[in-house]
Specification:
Elements: H1 2-28, E1 33-48, E2 54-68, H2 90-118, E3 120-123, H3 135-138, E4 146-150, E5 153-154, H4 158-169, E6 174-180, E7 186-192, H5 198-202, H6 204-208, E8 221-224, H7 229-233, E9 240-244, E10 247-248, H8 252-260, E11 267-273, E12 276-282, E13 285-287, E14 293-295, E15 298-300, H9 304-307, E16 311-314, H10 318-344, H11 356-369, H12 371-389, H13 397-410, H14 416-446
Antiparallel strand pairs: 1-2, 3-16, 4-5, 4-6, 6-7, 8-15, 9-10, 9-11, 11-12, 13-14
Length: 448
């Protein structure tokens, strides 16, 4: 239910802001707005205001539109000709069309501004021991080192580190990283990026071996999946695992390692429960594409005090918050364009495209993580929507702006015939885009 509500809220906010951008500038330009609709198809609810604009909620929620008075769509009374969209100047029409995407960028700026002022929870970029063979391991990075900069840009959090690794790692073969250890010693190292594939695009830090430091957790169970191997075998919340197959267990990672290595293999757990000791046989279920990994459906007891030293809050004044909001919106917008360009020329995987199922999933996850996570997610999707709508594809706002640019160069509007052909091309391109996005959604949902 949380996922559904978060998804609906995300769509409603983004659509309303986008369409209100068109509406507000149309009204300022003196254009009569006939309908402001959230959704397509059959109207569920509507009311008409004193200006004659019908405000409607339609059945199919994936979008919306603002319908303006236009002679090209229906005859217009002579007294209303001055309020038609098609009779407005080229500059006015361009402003009305561009106002939708601009509203999405403004929304993102406002959301980031509010986040930076209210305080953003961050994870300090303290690193764990990198896996053997990864760029971080080859560079000599040790557990406990904290990243302070990457390619000369300041790093305050793991979020910063992820963004900079993605930003620079897709184009550069070497990343210069600066760290400081617990004793205050500075170190500068170079990470050789190596092969960049869809794995790097989706998880750059993991590909580089820059893993978040996790303090050792005691092997005490807290959450068990109902019906999972652990619960079915009789394990309970609060149990302390002492040994597995007579091999002593010192921390939770020992449990994880042993279980993952034994899919469909019975393991003998020695457990301490309420001062007593007992043994239980647990058979990890096989997961993964080839069933190569074991899982018992259990999570450890986590003491918040263990993680407190590695967490912080970033909070800034109004002016610096606005500066950071503008910078973040600009960087994410340009990066989105770069990734779209890379996908078009085959330098980035089409698996990076996401459709409504993935967006709904992320909306639900971010909502469950707290208001700050949901607001950040909303800002990111708003930027994506703004960038997408500015693409020079017929049917999108960017396609109309392309027509107006041609009109500016030639001095006359693009012919209806060309617009009709462009519309068909636009439908085909958007349909193909939606196909890949939905295909990726289903892949993530059923394959993982």
């Amino acid at each position: 239910m949380t996922t559904l509500l978060a998804f609906v809220a995300t769509l409603a906010i983004l659509i309303i802001f986008h369409e209100f951008g068109h509406y507000a500038i149309a009204r300022l330009a003196g254009v009569k707005v006939l309908r402001f609709s959230v959704g397509f198809g059959k109207v569920i609810a509507q009311r008409t205001d004193r200006h004659g604009t019908e405000w409607a909620l339609a059945a199919f929620p994936l979008g919306g539109y603002v319908k303006m008075l236009d002679e090209r769509e229906a005859p217009v009374e002579p007294a209303l000709l001055g309020e038609t969209f098609n009779r407005k100047s080229l500059a006015a029409r361009s402003a009305i069309v561009a106002a939708g995407p601009i509203a999405n960028f403004l929304l993102a700026i406002l959301l980031f501004w509010a986040l930076f002022m209210s305080g953003v929870p961050i994870l300090k970029p303290v690193l764990d021991t990198p896996p053997n063979g990864t760029p971080a391991a080859l560079a000599g990075i040790q557990a406990g080192e904290q990243v302070t900069s990457l390619n000369g840009e300041k790093v305050e959090s793991f979020q910063d580190l992820h963004w900079l690794a993605l930003k620079y790692g897709l184009d550069q073969d070497q990343l210069d990283i600066e760290t400081v250890d617990a004793k205050g010693y500075l170190a500068q190292r170079s990470l050789l990026v190596g092969e960049r594939d869809e794995t790097y695009e989706q998880a750059p830090l993991k590909a580089l071996g820059l893993l978040r430091y996790m303090p050792p957790l005691p092997p005490v169970l807290e959450q068990l999946t109902p019906g999972g191997p652990a619960a079915s075998a009789g394990l309970q919340s609060g149990d302390r695992i002492l040994a597995i197959d007579n091999q002593a267990v010192g921390e939770w990672n020992d449990v994880v390692t042993r279980v993952r290595q034994a899919p469909n293999i019975g393991l003998r757990f020695s457990v301490e429960r309420q001062g007593g000791q007992l043994e239980l046989k647990v058979t990890p279920e096989a997961i993964g594409a080839k069933g190569e990994t074991g899982r018992i459906g259990a999570a450890p007891e986590i003491d918040p005090a263990l993680f407190a030293p590695y967490q912080d809050e970033a909070r800034y004044g109004p002016i610096e918050s606005m500066s950071r909001a503008l910078s973040r919106t600009w960087e994410l917008s340009t990066f989105s364009l770069q990734m779209l360009g890379r996908m078009l020329i085959g330098e980035a995987s089409l698996k990076n495209l996401s459709g409504p199922i993935t967006i709904a999933d992320y909306a639900g996850q971010s909502a469950e993580s707290g208001a700050a996570s949901f607001i950040a997610f909303l800002a990111l999707v708003s930027i994506s929507l703004g960038v997408l709508n500015l693409l020079p594809v017929p049917l999108l706002d960017g396609g109309h702006l392309l027509y107006y640019f041609v009109e500016f160069l030639t001095g006359r509007p693009v012919s209806e015939r060309i617009q009709e052909v462009g519309q068909r091309i636009g439908i085909g391109l958007l349909g193909m885009l939606m196909f890949f996005a939905l295909f990726n959604d289903l892949q993530r949902l059923f394959v993982g």
